[in-house]
Batch of 2 targets.
Target 1
Amino acid sequence: MSLKPITMPILSDTMSTGKVVSWTKQPGDAVRKGEVIAEVESDKAVMEVEAFEDGYLAGPLVEPGREVAVGETIGYLSDRPQQQTEKASPARTRASAAGGAAAHAESKSPEETPPPAASAAEALAEKMPALSPVTHARHGQRERVKASPYARQLAHALGVDLGRVTPTDDGVIQAAQVVAAALRPPFPDLEAGPPYRLEPLSAMQEAVADNMSATVHTPVFRVSSRLSMDPLLAQAHEQKLSATLLLARACAQTVTEHPRFNAAYTPEGLAQRERVDVGIAVDLAGGLVTPVLRDMAGRPLAELAEDWRILKEKVFRRRLAREDYTGATFYLSNLGMFPAVDRFDALLPLGAAAILAVGAAREGKAELTLSCDHRVVYGADAARFLESLSERLADPQQLLW
Amino acid sequence: MDEVLYWKALNLALDAEMEADESVFVLGEDVGLYGGSYRVTEGLYAKYGEWRVRDTPISEGSFTGLGVGAALVGMRPVVEIMTINFSLLALDAIVNMAAKVPFMSGGQFPMPLVVRMPGGVAKQLAAQHSQRLEQMYMNVPGLRVAVPSTPQDAWWQLRQAIRSDEPIVLLEHELLYFSKGPLDVEAKAPPMHRAQVRRDGEDLTLVTYSRMVDLSLRAAERLAEEGISVEVVDLRSLRPIDWESCARSIAKTHHLLVVEEDSRFAGAGAEIAAELAERCFFELDAPPRRHGGEELPIPYNGTLESRCIPSVSSIAGAARALLGGKQPGETP
């Protein structure tokens, strides 16, 4: 009998870990090449994993919801309908999930070397990144962490608590892990407050957190304006189009008129893009995504409306691919559907010069706030931008080709 | 600058020193009429005559002892032992006499003795002629051990050894005699024990000596293509060792690999790794590793022989393993 490992696939170029959302087959089930056997969650999307050849799914399968590094084994394909091999030894898994570094070390000690038959399961159990350093720090079990002398010295110099550093797969902390921890945002002191439990971040929450944290170095200024929304809303109603789509179209045309707003700051110069791609913030249970409509000023509205419909469908089904949500040159965040919202500021994602935040319309007018990267555009530029936008909103006819 | 063979650089160094100082003379088996097993004394017999280029019987103990005696009375003998394997017969003269007399006489007797010998694994010379016994001489206080890896160093270090009043073992390598390299006879020599960085790197300090320098440089080249930047330090001297140069490199790379042709157990690399671990403990980001020969008398069979000592690819593998945190032997 031969067992071939199924590994965590790389679904986007930023993906370093993934989670199995669910197994669509059970151990022992016959599968055909190309058949879906599992669903895997990457940075933002859920994707299907297909069998790479005919065979039988074999355990131990990695538990759904557990974060696994790309390339790690998540299950096996067998050429025979095997009895399920022992499940990743439950006792041990529980022990390490409880967070004892001792339990982890134990499973690695030579006396505990498992018999060869169980080695696949054991290897998997060992690799499970079950113990989060945060967990055992909280339980106060200060086991001695395996760190290189240089890593310890660095941690001391940088004021990094080794208990909060995520070690390598081998369970060792080296300089690179300390530096990574030092660059992570500070950990709040929760011990002073009420008891708590940690909910792990979903891949999407993590991606949003990373993207938003990355914006803190952008010098932003904001300019607000109360603009008449009635003509645009009426037009949207009449054409049976989404108001957000028409707003994005108005923004894109305005950007074309003020091309500085299509630039991105880089330390080597301003990246002046040839096309206006608008990222639109979309509310989603447990997160936020910004699907991107390409060439928003240069294509017929009907085409854009169809693209928007497809993107929203993908968002709803959580099938958005990386190319669907990256590379915007301008952003729009519309909270106009919430009548309580007067106005708000949006955070400006890296790679764009401005983002427009739209509040709810009151007596025909809504408050719009443009947050701009001051390295790219200046106050008067923003004022001129809003002037032009105002003209478009007053006469939405020109948006409709 | 001229490119010369390693043996020729040694030959030029002997010639220069014999011409400069009449008290310098060479002795050993086949050094005179025959010109030396590896041509190092070629032409010297004709130029300086049989008093200063002395053929000896096959008796390492006695002619090395003769060298010690001559040094005691003010001569500057250069003893050639045909290979390091035969120097086992001369250990009493080297270890008990040469290394001790200056100390036991309270400094009254200097010991300007040079003992030259090739060592290392060559091409199918079998177990008794393929030894690397440098660790034996390293463990003798009172001796100096130099290991030139290039013609330039051969020229510099042999001349420095002859001019020194301390007993010095000059370890050459049988496969280096016919390697070529630039020689600048005018260039100013660095101190005899000073280590040299042969290649700058950022990720890993590779400390090595003698023939393994060349193999390590070629491995570093290969690793550079994979994005691994290796700094190669040529020790040039095994007693004393220039620890500061090694430590400086480790402070930059935070990783140490020692490469030696000798078998690992209690070999030269053991001392190098231990001392550097003591000195650089807080700089190290991974355990220091030694990559050396197998724990075996070297087999005669050529295929087995080449598997018993480090090669370019095994050195590259050891470097990858060290940086990747995996055990050696695993395919990276």
Note: The radius of gyration of chain A is 26 Å.
Target 2
Amino acid sequence: MTGALNLLVALAMGLNLLALGSSRLPSLIRAAAVQGMVLGVLPLLLEHEFHGLVWVVAAATIAIKGFVIPGLLRRALRTAHIDREVEPLLGFIPSLLLGAMAAIGAVAFAGALPLRPEHAGTLLVPGAFATLVGGLLLLMGRSKAIAQVCGYLILENGIYLFGLLLIHATPLIVEAGILLDLTVGVFVIGIIVDRIQREFDTLDTRKLTSLRE
Amino acid sequence: MTTVLDILLRLAVWLLLAPLLPGVINKVKAWIAGRRGPPVLQLYYDLAKLWRKGVVLSTAVSPGHVAGPAVAWVAVLSAALLLPLGPAGTALSFRGDALLFVYLLAVARFCTSCAALDTASAFEGMGVAREVSYAVLAEAAVITALLTLALQSNSVSLGTMLVPSAGAGAGLLAAGLFLVLLAENCRVPFDDPNTHLELTMIHEVMVLDHSGPPLAAILHGASVKLLLFAVLLAETVLPIGKLSPLMATAALAGSVLVVAVGVGLVESLFARLAFRRVPMLLTTAFLLSLFALLAAWKGAGA
Amino acid sequence: MIPGRLLLLAFLSLIVGLVTARRAPRLWLAATLTGAGAALAAATGVLAGGEVWEWRPTLAVGGEAVHLRLDAVSAFFLALLAVLGGAGGAYSRAYWTDAAHPRSAPSGRAWWNALLAFMGLVLLSANGLHFLIAWELFAVSGYFLITRERHRREVRQAGWLYLAASHAGTLCLFAFFALLAARTGSWELGPMRGRAELAPLFWLALAGFGLKAGLFPLHIWLPSAHANAPSHVSAILSGVAIKMGIYGLVRFSGWLPVPEAAAWTIAALGVVSAVLGVAFALGQHDLKRLLAYHSVENIGIILIGLGFALVAAAHGNPVWAQLAFAGGLLHVWNHGLFKALLFLGAGSVLHATGTREMSKLGGLWRAMPWTAGCFTLGAAAISGLPPLNGFVSEWLVYLGLFDAVGSRSSAAWVAVPAVVLLAMTGALALACFVKVVGVVFLGLPRTETAKHAHESGWFMRVPMLVLASACVAIGLFPMFFWPAVARAAAAWQPAWADAPVPEPLYALSACNITFALLGLLAAALLWRRVRRNGLSRAVTWDCGYAAPSARMQYTAGSFAGIITGWFAWILRPERHAKLPEGNFPAHAHFAEHTPETVLEKIVEPTGRLVMAVSTAVRRLQHGRLQSYILYLLLGLIALALLAFAGGGR
């Protein structure tokens, strides 16, 4: 079980780097979506007794993170006629190297933390750290609103990974709530993006600073 | 006496088998494109013909121009001799020969680059600039891969490092080394060996002004380099040294063939990358090796 | 007592040279060469025999008894000094002639001997005060040698920068030796590793010696000084003078306890210097400036070796430390040899064409085949290519680092990036020297001056050939040089005494020899085949363009463009471009220049800030007595408040 778990988390960490290295918005969205789906499977591996709610939440996570949110983003991309190039503020190679350093640093750091024995052997904590940093790097280093939304999604995935550590302590209903918030958030962003595009002809967040008043 | 004989035999294997690989790749490409394609032994015919041909040298070149391909060819062959050859192991193995291996390939790069700049051609200067620049990133990936193997086998000698398989990070290492293989041998997506536009080439443009026997040395050296990376990749991933001799030979030959087919497939299915994307792919190769190193560290530490 | 007599002979010869430098240049050369030979013999004797030569006459200078001492560490550096001192001296006979430089050549010869003598004295001094005096005199003679062409503004500026940096370093060293003397009660130097309370002093030594060695970011003075000095001076500055900084670090890290953090700092600074040195070198278009930045790179490689050896010493002397240290130490020799060779080669180019600008050169192999051959060999050596000497020392450092990674200790966390960056440094150096050789010596001459260059005379060729053969010798037969390195390492760390030649070194030597022979053989065979098949000449493939010109060749700037683009975050290249526009573009131009970023972006703004603050403070000084009395009163009140506040507590 731990082997499969680690493999999936490692895959998610790899997807972080893929997201950091994507130069086109659709591939960035796809990376975030696949990461969401990969992580959606995790509760099934962690929960020992299989009751209905776990299945429902996992299925909902996969559906929403893997299909609904990416669908909304792609729709925004299409309707707002956004250019597909990601415009990096921080170059792709530096972001990749930083992401990789974060991953290695997370592994080293998690080794030093006093974790519970059942979590010590897994990649859950390093994966969570690396995903958080990856999301933050995207939020800081990309100028387009859609790319930042993807960064936010990846950041949320990191938080979700942390949440999995407490899976026995918190009801999954909390995660379900977060998921709902997320969907609504992205939905709203999709609408706003569309409106801003119509109003200002740009979605470059650098230029949106003039809206600060 | 036996060592000399041994080395000569190995040399013969490398010399004779290497030109087969480009033939296989071309056959795969032709097959996917629905053509009949050139015969698998085409490079042998080409080499034989070039070896008999006269030479046209540029009026700009120095007397060292012919030495470049010659020394590069010797360097690549020497590097090849340091690699263990499946069940036969290595002819010469000592601590640190892995580093000699890397630096012999650098010697080959130095020689071909100087020979290319010797012709005073702007095109060739462009090719050399790309070759030596991308080699910086490829070198980082290769040395990280060697570091992974060294960490796993506790040795800095290719003879011992390549005996076991690469362990936990084998897949990562294989992917990384395959990317390096493509880059170092100037295959798609880094360079297109079939292109004929001077502005977009790396390796091919560096040899524009070579002809006759020196060109034969360059082409043959390039095929040895391709075989060398294929063997390195195969022995990194497979526990060749732990199989029975027959199995090991079959596994080595089979995996080299798989690599060749893989190169052919990549070449048929992918387009060449824009130059500004090349560093990105090489960085990926480096990161793959780096994570393999991490896996080796964790794997053996646990 | 033989080393003593030889050293005396060397000293007397240098004095004779000093006296005869102005009037009798031939006698000067003979005396200098004798001195260098005697010093080399003394150093070889100590390195071969292993015993320490000491001399304590009943003589006091500055109130301190003279104490000279030649152990294996000093002898190791002395040997390099002797070889380069002799080679550079001979070279200068034809390079900086009385005919061409009537004013500066005679005094230059005298300063040359002074520099050699004072550097020798630094190596021999076993007394802190005398060490400082010799160090200062050596720095000042270096200044007078750098500023031979005082009428040129950039030379004066380079000289001032050198002097300022040198004095900043001396200030640190002064504090270092004074504190050392205060804590130990004597200026005598010697092994005192056991006294842990002296450890913090090493930071001062690191700053002082690091400035001299030119490690990043303390290298700011180095590029301009080495580029603007006459080439034989550049050779000895780069080959030996900056090694004095390394000598200091090796010497005092061997004698004093070293805080572990300083060991880590040295290793990290070594890695940074190696990578950034070569990155800056790639951005240069001035031949000698480029070589100067490579000194920063190689100092980095040396310090990686030293730093890891120190880290290891803090972790109980694992075996890998010895390899790393030996590699670093051997690299001191190797870098001295090939960098001097390259500077002398650059000097020949400068002598023949009058320019250091690479974009004005090209195709020099026609006019200067000897120089081209020697320079190419040096280029291959500095790129760390087998079968030459640069590879041997880098190989030893690599072995040490690989073992450090294998140890899985905390050192491994630094060893992994060090290995990767060292490999990248090697590839970058290769790129840089392919560029230099290709742009300067290969291809076609880009200008008339390059076309009408001439080969240099035998006085300039022979030193280059000597250095080149030394590079080949260390590359092919490293085991013969190992005992010297091992003795020096044993003098640094007594636990390593009697290290046998590592077994792989023999195998490496065999490989190198075979490879060299096979390479020559293959080249000869291929050339014969080409001759037999028939050889014809044609123009280089020009893609059908009707009027190709030599200026269309790839330039140094465009060659390095890809890599300098990767390092633009620190190189900060300045671009001035007017791009072609429209269907019939009019005039267009493009110029790129890589500044000394640390100097221009950090040190100079800081200096300006300090100046601004000082100017503001200077307004207080205006000559009105009344105000001065006010200052006095204010000062008194402040003191009183301070005392009151202090007393209240």
Note: The mean pLDDT of chain B is 90.
